[in-house]
Each structure stands twice: as C-alpha cells, then as structure tokens.
Amino acid sequence: MSALPSRPPVAPPLASTIPSSDVGPLTPSSDQIVVLYVIVAMAVIIFGFWNVPVVRNVINPLKLFTIGWHELCHISAAILSGGRILKITIDPHVGGATIVEGGTPGFVLSSGYIGSTLLGGAFVLAGWDTLVAKILSFVLGVGLVLPLVLVRDKLTILLTLCYEALLVGFWFVDHAQALRWYCLFIGVMNILFVVWDVADDRFFHKTNDSDATQFAILYPRIGAHIWATFWIIFQLAFLAGFAVLGIYAFKITPEQMNAQAASFLPT
C-alpha cells in the first residue's frame, strides 16, 4: 500500500520587506516622538522658571535673549513704517518696551509676537536636526551677549557667561547632539512668548504691559483677554506646524544625523 503524501511544512512568516524609510512622511520616528514629549516638558518648565520668584533669575540671560529679539522686531517694524524710536527697555524682571512715535501702529505692535514666533520656530526645527542646531548656535551665541550692553546686574552677567560656556561645551557632547536640546529650549521659549508675556502682565503685574494689553488699547472694542487668546492660539498653531515640518523634513536615523552634522565643523 502506497504511503499517503505527507503534509507540506508550514513556511515561517516572511520578514517584512518594507524598509523603515517607507513609513508615512508624517509618521514620527521613535527619536522624533521623544522630541515631541520634550517640547511639552520644556513648555511646563519654562512657565515655572519664568514666573516663580527667585528661581526666575536663573534664566535671566535666556529671557533677555527672548525679550531682546521681541523688541528688535518692534524696532525694525517701526523704522520700516517710518516711525521714530523714543525709548527702549529690555529687562528680565519688568519686561520689554519700545516707545515709538509715528509709524504704522498695527504693524509695529503685531511684529513682536510674529517675530518671536518665527525665530522660535527656527530654533524648534533645530531640535530635530543637529546640523540646524549647530548653525543656529552662532545666532544664540551672539544674541546672548548683545543684551549685556544694557545690563549692569553682576549675577546676570555671570549667568550669561555660564550659558555661553554651556553653548560651547555642548558642541563636544555626543557629536553636538546636546545642542539640539539647548536650541529646542530656546525655540519653545520664543515661540510661546505670548504665554509668558500675558502671565507676567495678568498675574504678576509687571511694569510694562503685554502686547495683548496694548492691542486692547489700540483697538478698544476688543478686550485684552480676546487678544491674548488669539495670539496664544496663533503661536500654538505655529508650534504644531513647525513640529510637523520637523517630522517631515528630518526623517533620518541618529547615525545619519551625526554624519550630516560632521560635515559642518566636526567635533
């Protein structure tokens, strides 16, 4: 009697042939997911450091950089629209203020939050790519020093030197990977400037009003809380947009990122 044919063995499941690079362009990698979590954590940390007495002095140099850029945008808009600068204040405790004569008031006033958003967005992108962080570290290095022209506080000057030293040192930490987190911190601080500005104004009654309050004075039919809500939504939307752009534009492995960054001033 002939033997029954044996059952063919069950083949093992085939490994996926789809390379990891074929995932959706907006699907974050594991490294990019970490960046998203860090952005949220940094926003909470900055809010605390910006507003808690005594502790807030620790980030004075970073606040000066953020406030200084914000006021520089007001100054630029005033000059471009034919205005004249009467007075400039850049202070980590009382906030910033630019007193302008002439110019286009709406353009000058809106330029502050818009400028903070755009610079913050650029630094947020640096959180996704080491090469971008390396390039923007030069902007940060110069930007930390410039406000010292108006500063006489010895503690702030000492802290500024410390932050500059950190900036240089981070070039040599894990192939300059540490620069990404430094720049990302600056990016979150700038792109959400309206949050810190409004909190300072509403809860801590700083000497210089927030731009949201100034908008309410310029356009009295719309309350300051509505202007604050509008600009907060505006900056949150741009933060989300820059995060999506970072996921899309920098979908590379850590090894590829290191190799790319090594092409620019390798350390």
Automatic annotation (TrEMBL):
Domain of life: Eukaryota
Organism: Gymnopilus junonius
Official protein name in the record: Peptidase M50B-like-domain-containing protein
Transmembrane segments: 33-52, 64-86, 106-128, 135-151, 157-174, 181-199, 228-250
Record keywords: Membrane, Transmembrane, Transmembrane helix
Skewed-composition ranges (Pro residues): 1-12
Pfam families the UniProt entry points to: Peptidase_M50B
InterPro entries: Peptidase_M50B-like
Region (Disordered): 1-23
